[in-house]
Specification:
Length: 594
């Protein structure tokens, strides 16, 4: 709905908005079909090609429709307006799509499959979207009943009042703006080294869901943390030595191996058990089953007589109190039995016996089994337990538990690096996350570097002008630096989700630079409003539609999607600032001498 609203604001025409929506929809369908044929299935990274399609596809359509609208003001028939639009926009749009696609194709040689597929899909999809814009959109425009008059165009003048003042400002104060830009660039470069990467995919999810809350609660506990590390060694001596070294690390709480399931100091413990057995004097291996006494009264009376005999010889007040209490309870029990009928007396005694000594046989049998304990060896451990800690080829597994709360990324990274200083081959879930993020970041760094160099070479080869090439690349490079610096200031780390916004920002930066430099070459004067052209308005509304589409993602409960919305919004802001404010100021200083 936001996109449709912005299209209506840009065109002031319902039919042009409908034509743009149809064009974008058809382009997305064809791009999806191409993806199905090219890579069969999408992954977490390659699926981002859809973001590029939406962002750049709508920009192509807006450029075409705004130029077509301007041509209708000067041509009698729609056929001439469409033909003039094709002639005017095709070269620049083809140049934009070609340079951006070449930059995206630079992602293909990277080692990371997701990034490689993203480059193939995103680069090829640009040509699909451009083809739909240049072939299908003219047909739609020829069929829809649209007719604009100069009077209606005059009603749009309020839309360009602010850009007119902006044009005068940027060109008049070119030198101060350039100085400020230089300072911002230096500060941005200084902040690049502080860009954070969040390699924990749990942080991409909604933190209020039960599963995430439970997982993070487990991370706080030293004994239940799922973020443990594992290392394999091939001998018992190495196991024990490595465990001692690892447990000495400040980030390690404990280590567990197969040998931790074997009791320590077994000889001393067996000696204590043997002494207990001799003291108890038990010569049986099984405690006898309890039997019911048909006449318990005699036994109770005998026990009372024994207590009367024992009590006078006790001098410990505590023992006397306990025995007197026991005597009182026995007298109460005897009284209860005398007051009951014979039938209910038997049931009552069964209940009393079960309550008082019902668990005695099982407890005594456990004790007897324990008194027969023997030395425990590896062969005595359960098979399923041994298979978890000892492989068939003799590899022992050591599990390493963290000492600190691994909800903090810095602690998780320190835990990994500390352990790998002792055991470089240590692996498990934390290393998987960490290495995956490093591979993705490395692949994107490599691809972006190749893309920028390739785009610069292609631009210079086409335009044969070093000044124009440097001016076109300025918004891209400057916006990239300031975007990364902004992630530091907003505490938005780079993660698996928002890093896929880079191809979209790359495309916007290149396209806007090409469009603006061409416009500045034609009309670089404070008396002319460069923002009144259809090209400038198309760039503005293209960026506005894309940013409005993705800005809403910043409020998503899914943290990964929210961070992608933040990065795209920040990136588009800096690209538009570089294109509409910084580039005109630089162009006046550079092109004036040229």
């Amino acid at each position: 709905m936001f996109v449709v609203g912005i299209l209506l604001l840009a065109y002031r025409s319902l039919w042009l908005s409908v034509a743009t929506v149809i064009t974008i929809s058809l382009g997305m369908i064809l791009c999806g079909a191409f993806a199905a044929l090219a890579v069969k299935e999408l992954n977490l990274i390659s699926v981002a090609f859809a973001v590029t399609n939406i962002g750049l596809g709508v920009e192509y359509a807006i450029h075409f429709c705004l130029r077509y609208k301007d041509n209708l003001m000067h041509h009698i028939s729609r056929e001439k307006a469409i033909r003039g639009t094709l002639i005017a926009t095709s070269p620049s749009l083809l140049l934009c799509a070609s340079t951006t696609a070449i930059g995206l194709y630079a992602f293909i040689p990277t080692d990371y499959q997701g990034v490689s597929e993203l480059g193939l899909l995103a680069g090829s999809s640009l040509f699909i979207c451009l083809s739909v814009t240049l072939i299908v959109l003219p047909v739609i425009l020829k069929l829809i009943p649209i007719n604009l008059t100069p009077k209606r165009e005059a009603d749009d003048s309020w839309l360009v009042q602010i850009p007119e003042h902006l044009a005068q400002f940027t060109l008049h104060y070119a030198k101060p703006i350039t100085v400020i830009v230089g300072i911002l660039a230096v500060l941005g470069l200084a902040l690049l080294g502080r860009v954070e990467t969040d390699f924990n995919p749990i942080n991409l999810r909604d933190p209020n869901t039960d599963s995430v809350i439970a997982f993070k609660h487990l991370l706080k506990d030293k004994d239940t943390s799922p973020m443990t590390l594992s290392v394999l060694v091939d001998s018992e001596a190495k196991v024990k030595t490595l465990q001692q070294q690892l447990e000495a690390l400040p980030t390690v709480e404990k280590t567990v191996s197969l040998y931790d399931f074997i009791p320590e100091d077994q000889d001393d413990k067996l000696a204590i058990i043997e002494q207990m057995s001799l003291t108890l004097g038990l010569n049986t291996t099984k405690f006898p089953v309890l039997s019911d006494d048909p006449n318990p009264v005699l036994g109770i009376e005998h026990l009372l007589t024994t207590l009367d005999t024992v009590l006078p010889g006790k001098i410990n007040a505590k023992e006397i109190a306990v025995l007197n209490q026991f005597k009182t309870e026995l007298q109460g029990l005897l009284l209860e039995l005398n007051n009951r009928q014979q039938t209910s007396r038997h049931v009552f005694m069964e209940t009393m016996q079960t309550t008082v000594i019902g668990t005695l046989p099982s407890v005594m049998n456990d004790l007897l089994i324990g008194l027969n304990a023997d030395t425990v060896t590896l062969n005595d451990l359960p098979v399923d337990l041994k298979e978890r800690w000892l492989s068939k080829d003799g590899q022992y597994r050591i599990q390493i538990y963290p000492k600190r709360d691994l909800n903090e990324l810095s602690e998780l990274e320190r835990f990994i690096t500390d352990v790998q200083t002792i055991a470089p081959d240590a692996t498990d879930l934390p290393v998987l996350y960490w290495e995956s993020m490093q591979a993705v970041v490395k692949a994107f760094e490599q691809a972006i570097a190749i893309a920028i160099i390739t785009i610069a070479i292609v631009l210079y080869a086409i335009r044969r002008n070093l000044t124009d090439t440097l001016l076109i690349m300025t918004p891209l490079l400057l916006a990239g630096v300031l975007t990364m610096a902004s992630t530091v200031l907003t505490h938005t780390p780079v993660n698996f989700a928002n890093i896929i916004a880079l191809p979209l920002l790359l495309g916007f930066g290149v396209d806007n630079g090409i469009h603006m430099v061409e416009k500045l070459r034609a009309s670089l004067s404070e008396k002319q409003n460069i923002y009144q052209s259809s090209t400038a308005r198309a760039m503005f509304y293209g960026a506005l539609t894309t940013s409005s589409s993705f800005a809403g993602l910043a409020f998503s409960p899914h943290q990964g999607i929210a961070s992608m919305g933040v990065v795209i919004t920040i990136g588009i802001f800096w690209i538009m600032t570089s294109t509409f404010v910084i580039l005109p100021a630089l162009s006046k200083l550079v092109l004036k001498r040229g």
